[in-house]
Design goal:
With 277 residues, the protein is α+β, with helices and mostly antiparallel strands. It folds into two domains: 160 residues, Sandwich (Jelly Rolls), CATH 2.60.120; 111 residues, Arc Repressor Mutant, subunit A (Orthogonal Bundle). The protein has ten helices and ten strands. The protein has a six-stranded antiparallel β-sheet, with helices on one face. α4 runs parallel beside α7. This is AraC family transcriptional regulator. InterPro entries: AraC-bd, Homeodomain-like_sf, HTH-like, HTH_AraC, HTH_AraC-typ_CS, Tscrpt_reg_AraC-type_HTH. Keywords: DNA-binding, Transcription, Transcription regulation.
């Protein structure tokens, strides 16, 4: 089954315009012969498998993969013989298109991108296709808007997967230092690493890579260590186990006891007794 729409390019300077959008359940072995396009084209694999070739490079792709085609690249793709892929696509042009792709981290050398399970990307492709109605004189407004949102999602993926070396040593050190200060100030609250990452302006996985590079441990491990060391100190006081737990960010005393035993090898009450002997 093939659903598709296509119009001729008619973009003005500064615009990014959707030219083609569709979805296709291919048949076994269905192929697109080697071709060179004069616009940008991005496919997202919904199901099945296939092979994408770009400038002599061959990629075996499946569910969750994107393949990206730039103008003037020699490309071809073919569906698997036993599990042919179903994909959706969007093609676009415009004098600002190249700059926008660069801004989100996509370059001519990036041919394939994998997306973990994420409902936003497929839904944005669907929104583009649903609003792609050339009979409507204003169809380019919603399709252009959804395309921009799609590129924003690509940027989030690139930030998640980018190597730590992409930021300077000083920037990395500063981010880690601020992260530590924030955890020291808030370890007694029910904070999460997701909150920390949002505050620092990084994706959680990227912040974890960065933090580990400079400290040798992840922010989750650092926060756990910080809480347990403080708990050890508080257990030498007159506070109850429940009060100690609440003071280091654990509203559930039983869960705190489990975590403390994982840290020290003994329960909080046993630790307190040993320290008082």
């Amino acid at each position: 089954m093939l659903q598709t729409s296509f119009i001729l390019p008619n973009s003005s300077p500064g615009e990014i315009m959707v030219l083609t959008s569709g979805i296709s359940q291919t048949t076994a072995g269905y192929s697109v012969a080697p071709q060179i396009l004069d616009f940008y084209l991005i496919h997202f694999v919904i199901s099945g498998k296939g092979v994408f070739s770009n400038s002599g490079q061959r990629f075996e792709l499946g569910v969750g993969d994107l393949f990206i085609i730039y103008p003037n690249q020699l490309v071809a793709y073919v569906a698997d013989n036993t599990d042919p892929w179903k994909y959706t696509w969007v093609g676009f042009t415009g004098s600002y298109a190249h700059e926008m792709l660069n801004a989100v981290g996509i370059t001519e050398d990036l041919h394939v991108l994998h997306i973990d399970e994420d409902e936003r990307i497929p839904s944005l492709f669907t929104n583009i296709h649903d609003h792609f109605q050339p009979k409507n004189n204003f169809f380019d407004l919603p399709t252009g808007a959804y395309l921009r949102l799609l590129l924003v999602e690509f940027r989030k993926i690139m930030e998640k997967n980018q190597p730590v070396a992409m930021i300077t040593h000083q920037e990395g050190y500063s981010a880690v230092e601020k992260s530590i200060r924030w955890m020291v100030a808030h370890y007694n609250q029910q904070i999460t690493i997701e909150q920390l990452a949002d505050l620092m302006g990084y994706h959680r996985s990227y912040l974890t890579k960065l933090f580990t590079k400079y400290t040798g441990i992840s922010p989750t491990q650092y926060l756990f260590k910080l809480r347990m060391q403080r708990a050890q100190s508080l257990l030498l006081s007159i506070f109850t186990i429940e009060q100690v737990a609440a003071s280091v960010g654990y509203p559930d005393a039983m869960y705190f006891s489990k975590m403390f035993k994982k840290w020290s090898g003994v329960s909080p009450s046993v630790y307190r007794q040993k320290m008082r002997e």
